[in-house]
Amino acid sequence: MKSLRTAVIALFCVLLSVSSAGAQESDEIVAELKAPLGLSDEQAQQMSALMTKYKDQMDKTLAKHEDAEEPDVESMIADVRGVRDGYRKELSTILSKEQKAKNSK
Q1: Which residue in 70, 87, 100, 105 is deepest, having the highest Cβ count within 10 Å?
Q2: What DSSP character marks residue 67?
Q3: Residues 26, 55: contact at Cβ < 8 Å?
Q4: Average pLDDT over residues 68-78
Q5: What whole-number distance in Å separates Cα of residue 27 and Cα of residue 13?
Q6: Cβ-Cβ contacts under 8 Å for 84 (sequence gap 6 or more)
Q7: Where are the domains of the chain?
Q8: pTM (2 d.p.)
């Protein structure tokens, strides 16, 4: 049981570091992706807004599990995957087919 708790804490640390990117960092990430993916200015704005939206969702998801004395690992993983899948679904509406192919590499 102790190793499971250690694994959960480690997973939380990773997820918290991933979710700590703010709007400014989202803009920086998008700026780095703009040329390689060939993003238009509109697409770059949409991606930045999308990253900020899903960062907020991830923060809420993590907060939901953070205070649990005995966190339900399966539930937490399912919730994080749900946020990730929502992000990917919305991202696919922003990128063209060619950009999606470049993004998957």
Answers
A1: 87
A2: T
A3: yes
A4: 84
A5: 23
A6: none
A7: 2-103
A8: 0.71
